[in-house]
Amino acid sequence: MPYRRAVRPSRTVATAALTAAFALGALPGLVGSREPSREQPLDAVAMRDVILATAGDRSIDTISAPDPAFASAARLDPSSVFSEAAPGAVAAPAVRPKIKVPTVAAGWDWKAPRYTMTGYATFYDHGTTAMRLPRGTIVVICGSSGCLERVVNDYGPIKAIRIVDMYRPDFFRICGCGWWSGTTWVTVSVY
Question: How distant, in Å, are the alpha carbons of 27, 28, 30, 34, 41 from that of 38?
């Protein structure tokens, strides 16, 4: 009798069979799921009173008061009596105490930048602030419509006439120019 080797299915056949088994398990119609039933009116029997066996023999009169250990020292009882203040009693002090408050100069100040530079800024859509500075450098970019504090996280721009490439929303926030503008004059403070 010649030796016969057992035939095993190839990897492709095994993968296809396993995928088919998972797909059949994922289909709700084949697993016994039903479509939702139609809306039906509620049965009146479902709205009857429920009487618990533990509270059937007790009434409000027979329920004991909570343990006095849990009550506060100045709690109000039905027997509590309120009293009015004496006619000559002073409820608040006549003179307020004087408190010495230090005087603080109003205003705020930015830390002095290491240096500043002026030039043109442009935008691009990579979501970064690109300058020819090390990544992580904090800069404040000021244009005609305001200032933004950003962290340099990309290297650029390639053209020497521009000093910063900015994310499009940041550019138009400080630009004060129309959507057709491609560059704006800015001052960059490097910290």
Answer: 22, 19, 21, 12, 10
